[in-house]
């Protein structure tokens, strides 16, 4: 196999995707490449991906490598030295199992083809039971520590955006978020819910032509453009009050509130909507199962479990809604509707006195021509 291209690199894949262009080679440092990250690489149409970390460690069956394989994007695994020896913008060549830069071999690499990916994933599937046991134990242990999320001990900010009595759409850039947003587009246009983007979920809304009313998160994967367009920004802070993401917002000359709380940013988005009087919360792209959370690097889902217990009465998850119904465009339906619409028009037209006289004259003219 021979591949040549321009390298773009970053140790955080979600930051790298903002800089990638068609045909680039993505150099990443991503242990257990997750599905969402892989989908973002596929969307950028990269030429190939080189990972200096364990793409599949075998801890659980992460689906990112399979996503790249299905998109026919070659995936290579190499060592950490590559990251230090290649600069952003360098042109490299990959020849069989060698990485070449400026005519010099700088590292070996291994192609993870479908067969190799399947072998590694089988190790993950074999470990899933023990991983599940550990995941449940961590969830219960941390639920005891984080119970303040639902017992009223956490101070929840009052939003400037009026939420009381309104529908709220919370968008996370998770699996199938694009298809689900497309599926509920008519709902958004008709109901006009309050739009909350969780970090990159704000950019997801922009991609569909909507400006988020509120952006919530630690500000590590949302664009400057989205932050500037959002009407309100709420930075997820650590329980002790530290908010690293606030500095970025302030450097943009923007104002924000902080929300100190344990758990994930999508959890606090739900709490924010619920505490401010939302009538209904619709979730898109949120994380709901063990694999989702393991791919996020979390060993449990205590905060999500607690928050969903609290807001469950008004929460609707749109995940997978795109699979419930697929409309099909059929020409015969359009023709039928058109004919049905024309019938009353034709009836009214033929009943008009002037048209009756014209038809009578036409009838007489035809009879004269035929000698009848």
Automatic annotation (TrEMBL):
Source species of the chain: [Clostridium] ultunense Esp
Domain SteA-like C-terminal: residue ranges: 319-369
Signal peptide interval: none
Membrane-spanning residues: 333-355
UniProt keyword annotations, A-Z: ATP-binding, Kinase, Membrane, Nucleotide-binding, Transferase, Transmembrane, Transmembrane helix
UniProt GO BP: thiamine diphosphate biosynthetic process
InterPro entries registered for this protein in UniProt: Put_SteA-like (IPR047795), SteA-like_C (IPR022215), TPK_catalytic_sf (IPR036759)
Keyword Secreted among UniProt keywords: no
Keyword match Transmembrane: yes
Protein name, entry field: Putative membrane-anchored protein
A GO molecular-function descriptor: kinase activity
């Amino acid at each position: 196999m021979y591949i040549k291209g321009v390298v773009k690199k970053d140790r955080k894949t979600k930051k790298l995707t903002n800089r990638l262009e068609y045909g680039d080679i993505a150099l990443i440092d991503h242990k257990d490449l997750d599905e969402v990250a892989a989908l973002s690489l596929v969307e950028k149409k990269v030429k190939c991906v080189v990972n200096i970390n364990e793409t599949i460690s075998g801890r659980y069956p992460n689906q990112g490598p399979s996503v790249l394989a299905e998109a026919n994007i070659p995936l290579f695994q190499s060592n950490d030295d590559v990251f230090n020896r290649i600069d952003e913008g360098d042109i490299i060549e990959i020849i069989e199992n060698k990485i070449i830069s400026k005519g010099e071999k700088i590292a070996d690499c291994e192609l993870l083809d479908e067969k190799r990916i399947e072998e590694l994933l089988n190790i993950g599937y074999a470990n899933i039971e023990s991983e599940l046991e550990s995941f449940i134990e961590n969830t219960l242990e941390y639920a005891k520590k984080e119970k303040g999320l639902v017992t009223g001990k956490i101070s929840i900010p009052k939003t400037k955006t009026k939420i009381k009595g309104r529908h709220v759409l919370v968008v996370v850039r998770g699996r199938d978020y694009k298809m689900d947003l497309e599926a509920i587009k008519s709902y958004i246009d008709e109901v006009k819910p309050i739009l909350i983007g969780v970090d990159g979920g704000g950019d997801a809304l922009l991609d569909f032509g909507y400006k988020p009313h509120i952006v919530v998160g630690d500000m590590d994967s949302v664009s400057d453009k989205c932050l500037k367009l959002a009407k309100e920004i709420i930075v997820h802070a650590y329980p002790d009050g530290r908010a690293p993401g606030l500095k970025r917002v302030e450097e943009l000359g923007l104002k924000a509130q902080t929300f100190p709380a344990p758990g994930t940013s999508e959890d606090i988005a739900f709490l924010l909507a619920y505490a401010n009087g939302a009538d209904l919360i619709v979730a898109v792209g949120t994380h709901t199962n063990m694999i989702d959370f393991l791919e996020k690097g979390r060993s449990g889902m205590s905060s999500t479990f607690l928050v969903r217990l609290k807001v469950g009465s008004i929460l609707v998850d749109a995940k997978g809604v795109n699979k419930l119904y697929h409309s099909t465009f059929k020409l015969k339906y359009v023709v039928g509707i058109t004919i049905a619409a024309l019938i009353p028009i034709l009836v009214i037209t033929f009943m008009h006195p002037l048209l009756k006289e014209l038809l009578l004259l036409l009838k007489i003219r035809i009879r004269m021509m035929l000698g009848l």
